[in-house]
Specification:
Blueprint: H1 49-52, H2 56-68, H3 70-76, H4 84-113, H5 121-156, H6 162-172, H7 174-199, H8 204-241, E1 249-251, E2 260-262
Antiparallel strand pairs: 1-2
Length: 266
């Protein structure tokens, strides 16, 4: 590895554009993109609000900051062992929340359809099954996203290891919660539509076609909404954090115009 005496590890001093900042003064700017060197200081990554103190208020603050200033928020997210447990906890919370939203929607709709009568055992069993399916699918999607980030990192030479991938995937997984609320609306439409058809069987043919059309449209819209939110957060996270982890990568330097292959373990 090409490294001068007194230079910092490449794993901690790469600009967001991938340029090697080792040995640069903190007051200087990146020679390639103009980003202040100080902005790439790993000590500035203090963690998102959720990573620092997991809780409902921290969750709200985290995603409010993602909406108002996504790039700045991604620069705060830690990608190492300091908050690895908090990142996995966030992924677990989102997966469980997906199941809870779907199961709750089913129970509420059943209760309203029965005129506020208490839910029977059969409805509770169906809600539990829906919870398991929703939470399981949510968790698998997050795991798949983290694995995909690691695979692309190895292929493209980014510095996104497993810990960084989990940090990015867990924070971006809120998109699946958005889909869950949309699916809850679809569940409600199915339940109330079924009750209306039972009340007036003569309207079944036309109402069935109309209902199925809207059901599929709402389902597709919910899925696309979640995908767009997840993709937007993931893309912003990757662009901001792809050179900030601890995986092997190639960086651009000004040392005789040669790209030096560096490693976080060196």
């Amino acid at each position: 590895m090409a490294q001068a005496s007194g230079y910092e590890r490449a794993a901690t001093w790469l600009c967001a554009c991938g340029y090697d900042l080792r040995g640069e003064r903190l007051e200087a700017c990146c020679a390639e993109c103009g980003e202040p060197v100080r902005a790439s200081n790993p000590k500035n990554r203090v963690g998102s609000a959720w990573q620092r103190e997991a809780g409902l208020s921290a969750w709200v603050r985290t995603y409010v900051s993602f909406v108002t200033s996504p790039r700045r928020t991604w620069r705060l997210v830690t990608l190492d062992d300091r908050h690895a447990r908090a990142s996995r906890l966030l992924a677990t919370v989102h997966a469980i929340a997906v199941g809870v939203v779907l199961a709750s929607a089913l129970l509420v709709c059943r209760s309203i359809a029965r005129g506020g009568v208490a839910i029977d055992v059969r409805a509770l069993g169906e809600a539990m099954q829906l919870f398991v399916v929703g939470a399981g699918c949510g968790w698998l999607l997050i795991v798949a996203a983290a694995g995909e980030l690691v695979a692309w990192s190895r292929r493209l030479g980014w510095m996104i290891d497993e810990r960084a991938a989990w940090a990015i995937a867990s924070h971006a997984s809120v998109g699946w919660l958005v889909s869950a609320f949309g699916f809850a609306g679809v569940i409600g439409a199915i339940q109330f539509g079924h009750g209306a058809l039972l009340a007036d069987p003569r309207a079944m043919p036309g109402a069935l076609v109309h209902g199925l059309t809207w059901m599929h449209l709402c389902f597709a819209a919910s899925l696309m909404g979640g995908l767009l939110v997840t993709h937007a957060l993931t893309r912003c996270g990757v662009l901001t954090c792809r050179w900030s982890g601890e995986g092997p990568q190639k960086v651009r330097t000004r040392d005789v115009g040669v790209a030096a292959t560096t490693s976080a373990t060196a």
